[in-house]
Amino acid sequence: MRFAYRFSGLLGTVYRRGNLSFTRDGNSLLSPVGNRVSLFDLRNNKCETLPLATRLNIVCVGLSPDGSLAILIDEEGAALLVSLIGKRVIHQYYFHKPVHSVSFSPDGKKFVVTKDNLAYLYHAPGKKREFNAFVLDKTYYGPYDETTCIDWTDDSKCFAVGSKDMSTWVFGAERWANLIYYSLGGHKDVIVACFFEENSLDLYTISQDAALCVWQCDTELDGLKPMPPKDAAKEKAAEDDEELLEEPKGEEIHGKADPSEQETRNKVKYSRVAKYFFNKEGDFNNLTAAAYHKKTHLLVTGFASGIFHLHELPDFNLIHSLSISDQRIASISINCTGDWIAFGCSGLGQLLVWEWQSESYVLKQQGHFNSMVSLAYSPDGQYIVTGGEDGKVSETILYRNFRTFTSPRPSQFSSLAVDSSGEIVAAGSQDSFEIFIWSMQSGRLLDVLAGHEGPISSLSFNPMKCVLASASWDKTVKLWDMLDSWRTKETLIMNSDVLVVAFRPDGRELAVAALNGQITFWDHENAVQTGSIEGRHDLQMGRKELDKITAKQAAKGKSFTTLCYSADGQSILAGGLSKFVCIYNVKEQILVKKFEISCNHSLDAMEEYLDRRKMTEFGSMALIDEGGGGDEGVAIPLPGVKRGDMSYRHFKPEIRVTCVRFCPTGRNWAATTTEGLLLYSLDSGLIFDPFELDIDVTPSNIRKTLSQKEYTVAIVMAFKLNEKKLIQEVIEAVPSSEIDVVCSSLPDLYVEKLLEFLASAFETSCHLEFYLIWANKLLMLHGQKLKTRSEKLLPVIQFLQKSIQRHFQNVSKLCEWNIYNIKYALAISQQRGMKRPAEETPGGEEELDSDSDYLMQEPHEAERALLMKMCKYYQ
């Protein structure tokens, strides 16, 4: 089995924090999720996680106007310049301090970054190769407190910056003679957003106390006058001085809140023409996010209570006022057409895209706001269901509760298992040390199994026999026989508390993970141990911020808490309280590969060594909580508290893997982690992987053999070279009439390879019927031989079944839709009119033949006849 698994997606979590951004066409949405970014294709209903990650959680996303570049900035100011076309990191840069916002200019030539109370103007990276992609142009001083937001004029001549000191500053991107800086006040709280009007210097400013100020400028954009050119000698000397510095600081512009009369003479002036309030009299609701669409003059504002307003500016006419959540709205974005509005709620991890004109949701998703703890694949591998500590179960299909199982006395269930037939449900108790057995159909309690002397930690049914394995903290694994009145068949004694058990898919082997970090393998029929793996060192546990021992010492108390066999039973997947997931070869009992599920240092237990910079004479700086009663509000405020709860504390969740599962097809595996649901798939980018290659197997010789109509030889040669495109070319060149002959003459060794290729080809090819003929002939002619190797071929067959089942569902829905439409058209044609009375044929004319009669029918009659034929075809 090849282990070329690569990270392919992050599911179950759709938004964490940071700003949402629509792409240039307005059809896709970028959403920061932890230290990764997910791209939601809203037109095609698809989601993709970019194959890159920052060191800490992402807080700012800046998207270039052409949609080709993005700047991702994490909590400490480390930035990644990302190509959204190649989905690769182009450049890395460190701003040294946390960044509050980032924004590209509309012409894409520059971008502004705000940190502390400063604004930095950088030259945007171009299409040419550059030694340093981020070149500082100017540094702007003015605000006294931290900056909060940025907005540009349409012609990229000026930009505005909002601040926590309740002021808004307008700066010139170039040194204009009549506008270098301008300070605006008028607010009594933190500035949340500022927006320029379309093709104007007129400005809107919005504060946290839900107040909107409208500012009018006495100068148009065309009225900005360039600054006279500087002395060439001085400019050359300044450039030479910058070259001597390690990093050019650029030009510095110092703004004054109260400039003198002489400094404001012949300069741009602003006047406040209106001030509006969102809250009604007596209400108090913090405004937390805002977005403005300049072409439609649409203002969208979000509040801490989960309510959002839509207003038309500049008249401040209310269009909508709706509630989408009971949590704080953290980010709002409007697409280029102004039709779709995206909302992000970090408290519950909600992401919504709303079409305001039709008042309907384009996207409405919410992940688990607490950690995921379990997952399961559907038998065909098309769906994944997850369960979390928030008590929710997510799946793409809607289900209803049809059965509730209860115990005769209150018990705290800690494990659950369902047998392969789906008839028996078992649950283990953590407090009474008992196992409860129910019937799925009737919901009746069948039996209560007692015998363990500690909490039940795991249950697993044998997929091939009527045997239940139960693991307990009493250092035993018991096997219960379903057919013999649930009597104990065997009791396996372990050296440590047992945490998890798992049967091999063929039911002949049992894997057990214990508290001492060992994974042991048992022949449960004979109660004999067949092997063991010492996995404690492979966990490689990190050091927590408050740990007083090293990571190496802390790893001694860690163990695997979840196990899963691969579909062929040759490998086992193991995860636990660590950032690593391990794949072991069962037969050789060795580590095959170790996957690092996260590099996000915003999570706890990620550091391998103690960071001395965070240590003081009084202890770790992690003990100091800086988040109580902050701007982000609180999750559960105390009664009567409106502005913030001083008892609220931020904490760093610990990295861990709670559940791992192999897909039945063997093509991918999934893990529920602190980050969310992570998917790993076989690497599809592997191009050259030859099989039994010799010197005569070349693309030219393969095509020459194909032209001679030696199809079987050509297929074998193509599989030896093992280039997917070439294999597809050869397979599709075989006439459908020759498929039967080719399949019957194909060597057994290549039947499995051809089946695997067909399964992958079904996902992308449009030749559905052609490949179905291939699959049918192969299975009919080689079915008996394939049965003898069913265990080995199980992943391939399930992969093929998954691909065919998906096409069957899509085609059947299309056919049903066509049938309904045709029936509707038939009903309409019948209502439009009955057959008209036949007109008399003039004497002497010959009667028309049947085809001519059809062509000479009334239009609606000809359509009706055609519709009847189509309806019969689809049925």
UniProtKB/TrEMBL annotation:
Sequence ranges assigned to domain Small-subunit processome Utp12 in this UniProt record: 722-826
Organism: Catharus ustulatus (Russet-backed thrush)
GO CC annotations, alphabetized: Pwp2p-containing subcomplex of 90S preribosome; small-subunit processome
Biased composition annotated in UniProt, kind: Basic and acidic residues: 246-264
Any single biological process term in GO: maturation of SSU-rRNA from tricistronic rRNA transcript (SSU-rRNA, 5.8S rRNA, LSU-rRNA)
Family: Belongs to the WD repeat PWP2 family.
Lineage, highest ranks first: Eukaryota, Metazoa, Chordata, Craniata, Vertebrata
WD repeats: 365-393, 449-482
Stretches for region Disordered: 226-264
Keywords assigned by UniProt, alphabetized: Repeat, WD repeat
SUPFAM superfamilies according to UniProt: Tricorn protease domain 2 (SSF69322), WD40 repeat-like (SSF50978)
Name of the protein this chain belongs to: Small-subunit processome Utp12 domain-containing protein
